[in-house]
Amino acid sequence: MSVSGLMRYGAELTIVAMLLAALRRESGVALAVNVGDAGWIIERWLLWGERCYDAFRRYAKRSSYFGKIGIVPKTGNLNEPAGNPTGFFVF
């Protein structure tokens, strides 16, 4: 297997771990892990997902590319108050 293939699998596993971390945090539903021979590997992987999810949330809060969902003025500036009823929704 090539280095790029390993990097791709690592990135995909990280994204899945981040999704599981978000699911646990936002809904309280967690992956049921049997503590056995490989249980510690799965727990470490889930902790990695938690750390990556925290880092991404910090980045998204500071970044100008992300904003709260709601009515945005026609200027598209998320920092302006959304008092304009002719604004649009950001999904």
Describe this structure in words.
With 91 residues, the chain is mainly α. It has a domain at 3-64. Helix content is 54%, strand content 4%. It has 2 helices and 2 strands; from the N terminus they run H-H-E-E. The protein has helices at residues 3-27, 39-62; strands spanning 71-72, 88-89. The longest helix is centred in the N-terminal third of the chain and has 25 residues, at 3-27. The radius of gyration is 19 Å and the shape is flat.
Produce the secondary structure layout.
Elements: H1 3-27, H2 39-62, E1 71-72, E2 88-89
Antiparallel strand pairs: 1-2
Helix pairs in contact: 1-2
Properties at a glance:
91 residues, disordered C terminus, two-stranded antiparallel sheet, Mitofissin, 2 strands
- How many helical stretches? 2
Poorly predicted parts: 84-91
Main sheet overview: 2 strands, antiparallel
Strand order of the largest sheet: 1-2
- What Rg do the Cα atoms give? 19 Å
Class inferred from helices and paired strands: mainly alpha
Pfam family, one: Mitofissin
InterPro entries: Mitofissin
Can you summarize this structure?
This protein is mainly alpha-helical. The chain contains two helices and two strands, in the order H-H-E-E.
